[in-house]
Specification:
The complex is a heterodimer.
Chain A: E1 4-15, E2 18-29, E3 33-38, H1 44-51, E4 59-64, E5 67-69, H2 74-79, E6 82-85, H3 97-101, H4 116-129, H5 145-156, E7 163-167, H6 175-190, E8 194-198, H7 202-208, E9 211-216, E10 219-225, H8 231-239, E11 257-266, E12 269-277, E13 281-286, H9 292-299, E14 307-312, E15 315-317, H10 322-327, E16 330-333, H11 337-341, H12 348-353, H13 369-382, H14 399-412, E17 417-421, H15 429-444, E18 448-452, H16 456-462, E19 465-470, E20 473-479, H17 485-493
Parallel strand pairs in A: 3-8, 3-9, 6-7, 7-8, 13-18, 13-19, 16-17, 17-18
Antiparallel strand pairs in A: 1-2, 1-4, 4-5, 9-10, 11-12, 11-14, 14-15, 19-20
Chain B: H1 2-6, H2 8-23, H3 30-55, H4 63-79, H5 84-107, H6 113-132, E1 137-138, H7 143-150, E2 152-153, E3 156-157, H8 158-176, H9 178-188, H10 190-195, H11 200-226, E4 228-229, H12 237-247, H13 259-278, H14 283-300, H15 303-320
Antiparallel strand pairs in B: 1-4, 2-3
Helix pairs in contact in B: 2-13, 3-8, 3-9, 3-11, 3-12, 3-13, 4-5, 4-6, 4-11, 5-6, 5-11, 7-11, 8-9, 9-11, 12-13, 14-15
Classes of the chains: A alpha/beta, B mainly alpha.
Bound molecules: adenosine-5'-triphosphate and magnesium ion.
Amino acid sequence: MENVLLEMKGISKSFPGVKALKSGNLTVYKGRVMALLGENGAGKSTLMNILSGVFEADGGEIFYQGKKVSFKNTHQSAGCGIAMIHQELNLIPRLSAAENLFLGREFTNRFGKLDKKKIYQKSQELLKKVRLDIPPDTIVKDLSVGARQMIEIAKSFTIDANLIIMDEPTASLVDRDVERLFDLIAELKKDGKSIIYISHRLDEIFKIADDVTVMRDGEFVSMRPIVQTNEEQLIEDIVGRKVGKRYPFVKGVRGKKIFEFKNLVGKNIKNSSGAFYEGQTVGFSGLVGSGRTELARAIFGAYNLSGGEFFVDAKSVKIKTPKQALKCGIVYLSEDRKGDGLVLSISVLGNTTLSSLKSLESKLLKINKKKEKSIVKSLIEKLYIKTPSGAQIVKNLSGGNQQKVALARALMVKPKLLILDEPTRGIDVGAKKEIYDLINELKSAGMAILMISSDMNEILGLSDRVMVFREGEITANLEREEASSERIMSYAIGGVSSLRA
Amino acid sequence: MDILKRNKPFIGLLLLCVAIAFVSPDFRTTGNFLIILRQTSINFIIALGMTLVILTGGIDLSVGSILAFSSAVSAWLLASGYHAGLAICAALLIGAACGLINGIFISYGKLQPFIMTLVSMTIFRGLTLVFTDGRPINAGENLTFEFVGNGYIFGIPFPIILMIFLFALAYYLLNWTRFGRYIYAIGGNEDASRLAGINVEINKTAVYIACGILSAIAGIILTSRLAGAQPTAGTGYELDAIAAAVVGGTSLAGGIGNIQGTFAGALIIGVLSNALNLLKVSSYYQTIVKGLVILIAVLIDQPFGRKIVMTLLQKIKGRKL
Ligand SMILES: Nc1ncnc2c1ncn2[C@@H]1O[C@H](COP(=O)(O)OP(=O)(O)OP(=O)(O)O)[C@@H](O)[C@H]1O
Ligand SMILES: [Mg+2]
């Protein structure tokens, strides 16, 4: 066909102990968005890494712009106009936004001196393009995960690309940013650029994709123009079976108050108070930067407060470090699994039991490895973590499976209050449902659950109560019956105080 | 292939030994074997502590100075007629205190380990020089104390037994206890470790204390062997210890490595100096050879070096087929 930009045929790839790709096929058309879907560990990222030259394929062929290619590294693929936005954030936290944008591609003058002014100006343009309103010299460490993602996207514009690969770009974006990204994609399409778009959010696919390819277990399953398919069919292709109701809500039975926070004050936390009850899921909703994560981390002792009080079972407690929080029966699942959620260099087993090693100690401080192994094995099965064994290094798992390992660590603690910060980030449709079921199950068993989510459907679909945040303040505390997406948004954006009535 | 990869340092050691055994008949004797082990014991005991520190993502440049300081104090106590047990305890205490200082400034003061231990390296050395007035101290005769460096149990030199005991202890700590898990976790990702409920500061401090104590033990062996203390003892030992860890496959970035590798690394360095001595290579050349061996070992662990090795292997295979 004339308008084919890229064709990948029968790509295979093995890693020690894992056959990541058996036969990956993908065709991308000029000026169109090709969505690439599949379960966690289906091989999507691996296929893209092969395309852009990060990995070498074991077999198969790639045709790009009519020519057979095989890129040895990302410099080569970038030279041919292929840009990739990786699933994991790869920015250097200590550098500024501008420095990150042009890392390895800095402008220099004749004498090799950095042209800081030009870098600054160009960065400003790029940031404007992705509509990220920050000065280019902001240090990345101080930015939210969403803002970092936007920088990552802006970075792909520093090379003049014909094909842009976006591996789960919206996993850490809120709706408003997602809209921005979609505007951008529309613009790119108009310029005749092609996009490979990986996501686990199906609603997005129907908004922006022109075609959709599904893979399962490292193999091509189907390719269709988006207009010829529907959500149900896609889910069936992805999971290989039918999935029931997406948000299976089970009403919580409110038990006793187990945790209370009073008058918390800190940076981006303005005099906040609230409480959590056994058997209830509380959703934290709000825009990025509204202070949801800060408050959650403060409760976990991982964020500095200048004032406030905590009560566990109506007794005043001090929580200044995560260790103290864990002692009080609180556990927190970070929104940034690579940053501070997981130790990527150690095994699945090591990560899973990291917070509960004390309970595994026997005589002579010796860890009971047999017990450890069997607990980890059962968690791997319970969460369907795709890994050759517990001994696998977490870095080698697919993104969604890494997320599940982080969740496994939190569950192993058996907390009284479970704080989940974007728990389904990067998790596939089938597994999401399983996690929702699990949250409901834990709730029914009497656990108190605090869930931060940027996905409105998730908030509405799982919460018994919704706390809405705006600029560091809790602006609403809505019971499930009172909560609707419009109401939540109005409290999140503000200025509509009349709605309170 | 997997087994080969995991035991790379041991394979290197084996190849080295076989090669040297061919050229030097003196090398092949049991006596020489024990000599190598005894000579290696001091470096390896320090390297044990160094490995723990490096695994947490740190470094300790002050080990040589800690060794000298504890050595001087124990020699002085012996010379003043105190009991050997007291001299040993004092040396261990000094090692622990020095490690504690390093650990506190690094963990709680948030100083870069390299900078902090560079500073403490000079300060501890300075303290040693002040304490000894820059002169060697003769420990005098003390049979109990001499046993540490020169004694035998069932024909095996005591330093070797001590080394193996400490090796086993460190192995147990790293692989079977919570502390060991924490060391790997902290080196892999400090922030994530903190969120997992680990008291990162205390654990890091503990590791520097362990490194200080191990340096002091090495100091005691050295004092016992020399029946006295030199104020300049241990100069440059930090490099040998780092080299042993790195040759053994420990990553300076932290979180990756193990004690067995360090053992092989220390032996490679030990065997090499022993062989070069037997072959009467001048000590000037010896340092160059040592440097090259470390370079090769480290290169093999890099993508660049691995590529070279792989292509070489492929070529060899291709020729055979
Ligand atoms: N470097 C690696 N070493 C070993 N196994 C790997 C490596 N990279 C990926 N894998 C394995 O290959 C399989 C495919 O992984 P891949 O990252 O491509 O999945 P994915 O489709 O992108 O999943 P997700 O939606 O979770 O991101 C997984 O089983 C994963 O564990
Ligand atoms: Mg992926």
